[in-house]
Amino acid sequence: MKKKLVQQVTASFKEQFNADPEYIFLSPGRINIIGEHVDYNDGFVLPAAINKYVCFAVSKNEGGETNFYAKDLNEKYSFNLNDELQPVPQMWVNFFLGVLHQLKERGFEMTGLNISFSSTVPMGAGLSSSAAVECGYAYAVNKIFGLGLSKEEIALIGQKAEHTFVGVNCGIMDQFASVFGKKNKVIKLDCNTLEYEYHNADFKEYALLLLDSKVKHTHLTSGYNDRRNEVEQGLEILKKHYPEVKTFRDLNEEQVEAVKAHLGDVIYRRCLFVVHEIQRVLDAVAALEGKDFAKLGDLMFKTHDGLSKNYEVSCEEIDFLVDFVRNDENVIGARMMGGGFGGCSINLVKKTAVNDLIERVGKAYKEKFNIKLEAYKVKIAKGTTRYTEEHAI
Ligand code: GAF
């Protein structure tokens, strides 16, 4: 699949620019086992890069023009490095312009590039196709012009691009997972310090299965930014009552309960979710290490219920998918994944039961919503990288 993607992007580059590309880069999408909506709350997350990629074919050109070809959309965009950079109506262009803006702000010197790209990360499915584009581009520019950026800086540049040119006030999880991904490892990331450690993603007889609801509710950006504002307000109130508290991780459930009246119902429920979720990630890591998959799965269901009822970022379609598998003896854990309001659910399913489940849930989903469900059997893969012939073997 990876090889085919590389071949197709290479061919499209040749067609557009009448030459072979000098470089190929691959930048993966991500899953998250647990730790949702806590990256911007100084919590812990447990994501991993997956074997779905944005692939870039790139060559330097001596002029100041950077020319993009978005193969999947059959759209082109060019700009001059001396142009003033502003967000544009074509969303995909903003991922690049946002990164470039960050690089220019840091004073880096670059010449033009010719770029063709294509993606097997489904767009708008909550698998971080945008982070994959941002980080892949930043990684490529860093390599080609020898800018000397660390992986952490690349992830932070991607995140800043999202804030400034895309308008989503996201945390660091997606970009970090895309850049730092390792084959068969999940990353336990401390989003307060950016310290991280890898854990074996060996789920024994269980496989990871993503169910793509194919819905993307339009309030994703506003809903996401609203949640950020709500928890910020909540934390301010909590800090007044507990002056020693700096972040959500310094709080426990009892402390949140005790100031419920001051927080108000909505903000109370948002804060309660965050405090619970931070603890759940720590418990999930222990369960993963101890191969206690029943416990891990139970934590995933609890996360879903918190996201749906207290954080209110799920939707009817995703709730349906999680409820469908909740009492299935072959599904040990399931929950909505990513920013929410649509996208995918992540499921831990007995390997032997995966195909049967896809058929059953697909049928039920079609009956209920008249939407064709898409299922992805994903593998945990390496982060953003330059692709060379040796990868092809
Ligand atoms: C989106 C954001 F981009 C991430 O930073 C994270 O907050 C996630 O939603 C929710 O956990 O993917």
For the largest beta-sheet, the strand count, sense and barrel status come to: 6 strands, mixed
- The CATH class of the largest domain turns out to be Alpha Beta
| Count of spatially separate domains | 2
Order of H and E elements: HEEEEEHEHHHEEEHHHHHHEEHEEH
The stretches of 5 or more residues where confidence is low (pLDDT under 50) are none
DSSP summary: helix tally: 13
Overall residue-averaged pLDDT value: 96
* Second rung of CATH, namely the architecture of the largest domain: 2-Layer Sandwich
- Helix content range: 40-55%
What is CATH's topology name of the largest domain?
Ribosomal Protein S5, domain 2
Strand order of the largest sheet: 5-4-6-3-1-13
Shape: globular
Cα distance, first to last residue? 13 Å
Structural class: alpha+beta
> Which molecules other than protein and nucleic acid are bound?
2-deoxy-2-fluoro-alpha-D-galactopyranose
Strand content: 15-25%
Instruction: Output the radius of gyration.
Output: 21 Å
Count of extended strands: 13
EC number: 2.7.1.6
Organism: Flavobacterium akiainvivens
InterPro entries: Galactokinase, Galactokinase_CS, GalKase_N, GHMP_kinase_C_dom, GHMP_kinase_C_sf, GHMP_kinase_N_dom, GHMP_knse_ATP-bd_CS, Mevalonate/galactokinase
GO biological process, one term: galactose metabolic process
Q: What would a concise description of this structure say?
A:
The protein has 393 residues and is of the alpha+beta class. 45% of the residues lie in helices and 22% in strands.
What does this entry look like structurally?
This protein has about 400 residues and is an alpha+beta fold. The chain folds into two domains: about 1-200 and about 380-390, Ribosomal Protein S5, domain 2 (2-Layer Sandwich); about 205-380, GHMP kinase, C-terminal domain (Alpha-Beta Plaits). About 45% of the residues lie in helices and about 20% in strands. The chain has 13 helices and 13 strands. The protein has helices at about 1-15, 90-105, 130-145, 150-165, 175-180, 220-240, 255-260, 260-265, 265-290, 295-310, 315-325, 355-370, 390; strands spanning about 25-30, 45, 45-60, 65-70, 75-80, 115-120, 185-190, 195-200, 205-215, 330-335, 340-350, 375, 385. Strands 5-4-6-3-1-13 form a six-stranded mixed sheet, with helices on both faces. Strands 10-11-9-12 form a four-stranded antiparallel sheet. Strands 2-7-8 form a three-stranded antiparallel sheet, sandwiched between helices. A hairpin with a 4-residue loop joins strand 4 and strand 5 (about 75-80). Helix 2 (about 90-105) packs across helix 3, helix 4 packs antiparallel against helix 5 (about 175-180) and helix 9 (about 265-290) packs antiparallel against helix 10 (about 295-310). The mean pLDDT is about 95. 2-deoxy-2-fluoro-alpha-D-galactopyranose binds near residues 128, 173, 174 and 339. Pfam families: GalKase_gal_bdg, GHMP_kinases_C, GHMP_kinases_N. This is Galactokinase. InterPro entries: Galactokinase (IPR000705), Galactokinase_CS (IPR019741), GalKase_N (IPR019539), GHMP_kinase_C_dom (IPR013750), GHMP_kinase_C_sf (IPR036554), GHMP_kinase_N_dom (IPR006204), GHMP_knse_ATP-bd_CS (IPR006203), Mevalonate/galactokinase (IPR006206). Belongs to the GHMP kinase family. GalK subfamily.
